[in-house]
């Protein structure tokens, strides 16, 4: 979808899948030690057991041998060249495990410029003052640190003209907590009478339906559901529901929901934008608000006089079996239910139709089901060469085989599907003997889980093949399960990078006068933490070790060149990593602004000079 031509080597490496995990160039020492120590502390192991685990874990780690890379030098260089290119963007297609390469100029077509917005949070304070929410709820809902998310566009390669689905991850949106709060109030009031959760549930519902040639199967899909629902209509419906289950006034409820709408901001190529029409794509409350409208439609369809043999819905995709003579009137009825929603329809062809990943066919007045794949399906799965745990690769085989058994209702088709699974997995470099072994196992086991039930907190470590298994065995002796995290995926090379917007980091500041260092950690944006250090220097010197150093010594700290040392989502891991870097500086006689130097367990001290 771009003018730039990919070289053969670029094409080959992108064909591996954006989730392909590259072999780590060095051992993730700090992450592994942090995970081990966190697990020891969370499980309150006695001093003897803790010391034994630390000793053996360090011994296992010191015997690490660097594995061979699963990419050659040409492929690695090609990836870095693609990541540095200003001409293109690389992303995943919508509803398909396909990699799409786009001209960056294409991205300009999906947005229009709007002015930035400053949130008004006085409404939350009023709710607290009026005792409608507790102090605890107020502080939970109040945004403490946020940034407006970056817009992404997913290309719908399975639809004509390849339209774009806009997606905004609202994880750090200022009104995210409020949106979740409102959604959780509404959820208990929803009744999922006509919904199916997945293909397995759909097949179960279809199993005993008698359908003759007087009936027609068709599917209906709502065009651009979220952007099409007017905010005012969703607001009124949400308020109507919330009035029945909360003590908030109508005006309070409207203010809360309007605040959620007003926070629907995002960034794109350095500019700020606001969605002014429809439900925000990616917002936490949008699925719930849309479901309110869709359940009204469900009820009106059910109450209609049409002779429906079957009706179900998966989000905004409907499956209907109706008398052939009523099809035209019903589709007209459907498109008139809500003027702002428009449906597209797909009729059965030769007595069969595709819905979700199920092919449904009329067969002697019953419905037979088999696995369906779109024409644009890439047949790409986790590549066997990916540097991922073997358990993840087993799960790929088992999920495909399990789907076959859950969907297909005749033996001949199951054999055909299993052979096809063997074929496509071998295209993804899975050895045939590995595939057959997992298929055979599934005939004897009721579950694919190999973990033992335990109340212990698990060990969660980065996967390194020569270290992960011995560590797993070590912790298993203490009745502790191990879960593996994959390392760096190819897609991480193509994500927007802005260190000041990094969250969950361990960082380092340098004094530009005396070269002393300060190591700290924060779960918020690094830029927010830097601002706090700057304010402390001016207004509250005793609140920060950095401020104490600056004021007492009349020195200057180089705030602008604050360095990210490490990233870790888990708070306890991050604290350990912070302590590790402070101890490392102390061992190397680096002058510290930190007022306290933590004591690491003795077993970890030799690791301080490994990095």
TrEMBL record:
Keyword Endoplasmic reticulum set for record: no
Keyword terms, alphabetized: Nucleotidyltransferase, RNA-directed DNA polymerase, Transferase
Molecular function terms from GO: RNA-directed DNA polymerase activity
Superkingdom field: Eukaryota
Claim: Ligase is one of the keywords in the record: no
Domain Reverse transcriptase stretches: 135-371
CDD domains per UniProt: GIY-YIG_PLEs, RT_like
UniProt name for this protein: Reverse transcriptase-like protein
Annotated source species: Leptotrombidium deliense
Taxonomic classification: Eukaryota, Metazoa, Ecdysozoa, Arthropoda, Chelicerata
